[in-house]
Design goal:
Blueprint (H helix, E strand, L loop, with lengths): L1 H16 L7 H23 L10 H11 L6 H17 L8 H17 L17 H15 L3 H22 L4 H9 L9 H25 L5 H9 L3 E4 L5 E5 L8 H16 L2
Antiparallel strand pairs: 1-2
Helix pairs in contact: 1-2, 1-5, 2-3, 2-4, 2-5, 4-5, 6-7, 7-9, 7-11, 8-9
Length: about 280
């Protein structure tokens, strides 16, 4: 499964990298597409128990599977893509910009159909399936589905919830966690009753400061600086979640911007932190 996940990752990177204005980047796109296809072919060979070695070329392996084991869908199209990659890699011939959308689409169809032939739904496949925290996984998958159908606002809402749940999880692993901060918040009760309001504002301020410090330390254990963490959080909705990990409400600042780029930044952050746990 991890090989097919990597195959999808490479395909998505190729699609995201394509730009009609980036002339030299066209070679990168064609290379990533071919690597994506080859990763799936090797996974097929493994699942079909085909005897092969690292010396076997892509074309010979495709022919072997197709002739002797299982039909390869979109075979001709993927061999054309491979030829374009050979031309770039060995001879420095950049693929035509007019051909790249065709190669991207053909590679996608190749990956979908041949993944299905070995029992994998390529379109629903996500690295989120490897996430161990069920709450984080739930909202990451919901984010990816919202992105797929073009609902960017809902995607941002879901990935904001995923980040909040991940943050709470990290805090609970921290020696001085939520309980210590809550004790600070409640400490205003030690003051005389006529000073409770002022005391509560004071203890809330201290607790909020400690809360941010602890959160920063918790995330820094995953390799991120406080500045990076604060930047990512500034891109999120302020989400409120109940004990069942359900979104109750959310809000945003006046300068808030909903964009696919911000969703991807937060999603990548969540996935990297989760992998480092």
């Amino acid at each position: 499964m991890s090989s097919v996940l990597l195959s999808k990752y490479l395909y998505l990177k190729a699609s995201e990298s394509f730009s009609t204005e980036d002339y030299f980047g066209h070679g990168l796109v064609i290379s990533l597409l071919q690597d994506s296809a080859e990763m799936l072919i090797w996974e097929m060979a493994k699942r079909l128990n085909i005897s092969s070695s690292s010396k076997d070329g892509f074309v010979s392996l495709v022919d072997n599977i197709d002739k002797n084991h299982q039909k390869i869908f979109f075979k001709q199209q993927i061999l054309e893509l491979n030829q374009a990659r050979v031309g770039f890699k060995h001879y420095g011939n950049l693929p035509s910009v007019s051909d790249l959308p065709k190669h991207i689409n053909n590679c996608r169809e190749f990956l979908i159909e041949n993944s299905r032939s070995i029992g994998i739904d390529f379109e629903k496949l996500s690295s989120a399936n490897l996430i161990r925290n069920s709450g984080v996984k739930k909202y990451v998958l919901a984010c990816e589905e919202a992105m797929r159908i073009g609902n960017i606002e809902n995607a941002l809402l879901n990935i904001s919830a995923a980040l909040l749940i991940l943050e709470d999880f990290l805090l609970n692993q921290f020696p001085i966690g939520v309980s210590a901060v809550n004790k600070i918040r409640d400490s205003f009760n030690v003051f005389q009753s006529d000073s409770h309001r002022d005391a509560q504002e004071f203890t809330e301020s201290i607790a909020d400061t400690f809360d941010e410090i602890i959160k920063s330390i918790a995330f820094s254990g995953a390799g991120y600086s406080r500045a990076e963490i604060m930047h990512i959080k500034s891109l999120c909705y302020s989400v409120f979640i109940n004990g069942n990990n359900e979104i109750v409400s959310c809000r945003s600042s006046n300068e808030f911007q909903v964009s696919i780029e911000n969703v991807r930044k937060i999603l990548n952050f969540v996935m990297k932190v989760e992998r480092n746990l």
